């Protein structure tokens, strides 16, 4: 599904944030010591901690906060983080409705590109929570499969998004969940977000979406009239056939991503239990703050680099 990162690529990626083995081991020990005092959080591997440390530039206090948030949203949003069986009928229907997949190759500057396009114009085929569920499963699979990357690029092809009924799904509740999960509860660097092939009807909705991003990220959200405008930014060959590339057609790439999750069905289902248990939380409120969609009010604002 994805082309493995070579040793040469991995060394170049690591050089963007150089750290000796002893320094990394020391950082892992700091985070591990903190985790051992958090009975409400699940067991976490050293490999996972190392990847989070790299993604957050070895800032251990931020790493602690993101790991806390990462597991807490899984408890607070069960509609997204439960029922993760990729062979279920609900999951299969969403695969038919939305093409979602990573591009096989990294960009020349070592970013992973995630692509999205509705496979139908039927507004009833789109379920926001299922969209987030499938996206989280894909992202977690990539975080586990990729040795390291320098961040994510999202590309949304809006070819089949041409009705207000479809855009109505992108409401305030949906947008807050996206921001809460991706900017406060995941060790991810979002480098750019492209919206391509935009119909006139989408302009209002896109400006609404952009409004909720922090100022830093507003500059990274780009509206592209056609896909050709991206060809100066990325090697064209790495893209799907529909965009003039050679990576394969979008339906096939999406199907292959689904097959990868099916191969690791037990791993997907096991992720359901990897969440916080607020009944065991020490020294913090066990009640949810409804004003921020159930995510605890003591979550702090993060600005990822």
Automatic annotation (TrEMBL):
Gene3D superfamilies: CRAL-TRIO lipid binding domain
Domain spans labelled CRAL-TRIO: 155-251
GO cellular component, one term: membrane
SUPFAM superfamilies recorded: CRAL/TRIO domain, CRAL/TRIO N-terminal domain
Molecular function terms, GO-annotated: phosphatidylinositol bisphosphate binding
PROSITE patterns tied to this protein: CRAL_TRIO
InterPro entries on file: CRAL-TRIO_dom, CRAL-TRIO_dom_sf, CRAL/TRIO_N_dom_sf
Classification via PANTHER family: ALPHA-TOCOPHEROL TRANSFER PROTEIN-RELATED (PTHR10174), GH10083P-RELATED (PTHR10174:SF222)
Name of the protein described by the UniProt record: Alpha-tocopherol transfer protein-like
């Amino acid at each position: 599904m994805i082309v493995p990162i070579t040793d040469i690529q991995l060394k170049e990626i690591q050089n963007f944030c150089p750290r000796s083995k002893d320094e990394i081991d020391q950082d892992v020990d700091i985070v591990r010591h903190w985790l051992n005092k958090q009975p409400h959080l699940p067991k976490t591997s050293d490999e996972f901690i190392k990847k989070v440390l790299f993604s957050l530039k070895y800032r251990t206090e931020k790493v602690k906060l993101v790991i806390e948030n990462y597991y807490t949203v899984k408890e607070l949003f069960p509609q997204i983080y439960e029922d993760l069986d990729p062979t279920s009928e609900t999951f299969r229907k969403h695969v038919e409705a939305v093409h979602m997949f990573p591009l096989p190759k990294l960009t020349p500057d070592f970013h992973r590109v995630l692509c999205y396009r509705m496979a139908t114009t039927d507004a009833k085929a789109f379920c926001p929570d299922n969209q987030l569920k499938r996206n989280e499963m894909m992202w977690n699979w990539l975080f586990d499969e990729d040795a390291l990357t320098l961040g994510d690029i999202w590309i949304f092809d809006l070819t089949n998004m041409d009705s207000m009924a479809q855009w109505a799904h992108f409401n305030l509740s949906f947008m807050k969940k996206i921001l809460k999960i991706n900017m406060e509860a995941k060790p991810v660097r979002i480098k750019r977000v492209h919206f391509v092939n935009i119909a006139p009807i989408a302009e209002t909705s896109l400006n609404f979406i952009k409004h909720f991003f922090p100022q830093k990220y507003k500059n990274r959200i780009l509206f592209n009239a056609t896909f050709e405008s991206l060809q100066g930014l990325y090697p064209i060959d790495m893209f799907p056939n529909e965009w003039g590339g050679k990576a394969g057609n979008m339906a096939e790439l999406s199907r292959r991503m689904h097959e990868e999750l099916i191969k690791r069905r037990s791993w997907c289902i096991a992720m359901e239990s990897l969440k916080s248990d607020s009944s065991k939380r020490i020294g913090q409120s066990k009640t949810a703050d409804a004003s921020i969609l159930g995510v605890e009010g003591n979550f702090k604002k993060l600005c990822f680099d």
